[in-house]
Amino acid sequence: MTLTPGTRTLTQDDGELLLLTRVEGPMARMGHELALRIDRWSASLTIGQEPTETALQVTADLRSLAIKGSRIPGKLVPVKDALEIFTSSQKSLQVQKYPEVTFASTKAEGTWDALALEGNLTLHGRTQPQILRITAAESQYRLITQITQSAFGIKPFSFMMGALKVGDTVDLEVTVRL
């Protein structure tokens, strides 16, 4: 896919930013693997002449976190469960104290169809190195990475003395149209 060099501003109007959870523990079958959507985010994408000249800066507002539904297509999340999950996710992430998550790339490697962006992710008041992988498909781009909550000082939600808990690793998936 050929891109025109320059800087673009992207927002939630250009695509979707999802956090995809997993459940663990002996009672995992009772839990919900969720797709959580961040409704307010913006990005500055600089496209150079070569893929290695690409730069990305993203800011997302965790206070706009919403439950999209189950990560598993066709599986429903009851409204009562969704409300409890929403409240517990807000507490675990401490969104009032740490409302923003940011990413700033420092290096790009690859091709226009498969690009890896290395950079710094700041979440929950901590900054860690992170690699985002971007792939092209038809008229859109898909960005994926995995975030380990404990690396950022976040204690994943658990219930029934750990018999049911959210997995420490959460998938981040962004799909945008350019």
Automatic annotation (TrEMBL):
SUPFAM superfamilies: YceI-like
Family annotation (InterPro entries): Lipid/polyisoprenoid-bd_YceI (IPR007372), TTHA0802/YceI-like_sf (IPR036761)
Domain Lipid/polyisoprenoid-binding YceI-like: 9-177
The organism's place on the tree of life at top rank: Bacteria
Protein family per UniProt: Belongs to the UPF0312 family.
UniProt name for this protein: Lipid/polyisoprenoid-binding YceI-like domain-containing protein
Source organism (scientific name): Raineyella fluvialis
